[in-house]
Amino acid sequence: MSELRELYQETIIDHGRHPRNFGVLPEANLHQEGFNPLCGDKIIIHVYENNDIIENMTFEGVGCAISMASASLMTECLKGKSKQEVQEMFDAFHQLMTERNHSVNDKLGKLAVLAGVIDFPVRVKCATLAWHTLKAALAHESYVVNTEESLK
Ligand code: ZN
């Protein structure tokens, strides 16, 4: 195992144990729930969106270290971003989880620590749960996101 891989794992463990932006968000105007039945990960995302900008975002939930770390890193990286930028990050993150295309790593910054998840297909749903949930929140969907049902 390379040192870089170990460093990435430390970041994942740190965010999994001490998630950033964890809790309620009183000013939130979007709320979305997501569920990954394969692993039992549950998440609720709270977003304060203003003029198509994610002004603030928090999450609550229970789940494995990967799901919590991914949600934590996502909230850190997307605060202050426009919906368009969020969509671009979503696409890049999706690529990171499904293709061995390392050119997306630069674009993703800190989120690239999750690149190793591609080697554990079952964990990909843990890592993408927060993203699918956020996407549904921004689309003002009312259903509970479920990783075992077709995702848009
Ligand atoms: Zn999980």
Could you provide a short overview of the structure?
The chain is of the alpha+beta class and 152 residues long.
Notes on the structure:
The chain is α+β, with helices and mostly antiparallel strands and 152 residues long. The protein has one domain (3-140): Sufe protein. Chain: A, CATH 3.90.1010.10. Helices cover 44% and strands 19% of the residues. The protein has helices at 3-17, 65-78, 83-98, 105-108, 121-138; strands spanning 30-36, 41-50, 53-62, 145-146. Strand 1 (30-36) and strand 2 (41-50) form a beta hairpin. The chain is globular. The chain starts with a helix and ends in a 6-residue tail after the last strand. Bound molecules: zinc ion.
Report the portion of residues in β strands. Answer: 15-25%
Main sheet attributes: strand count, strand direction, barrel closure: 4 strands, mixed
Unreliable stretches (pLDDT < 50, length at least 5) are none
Radius of gyration: 14 Å
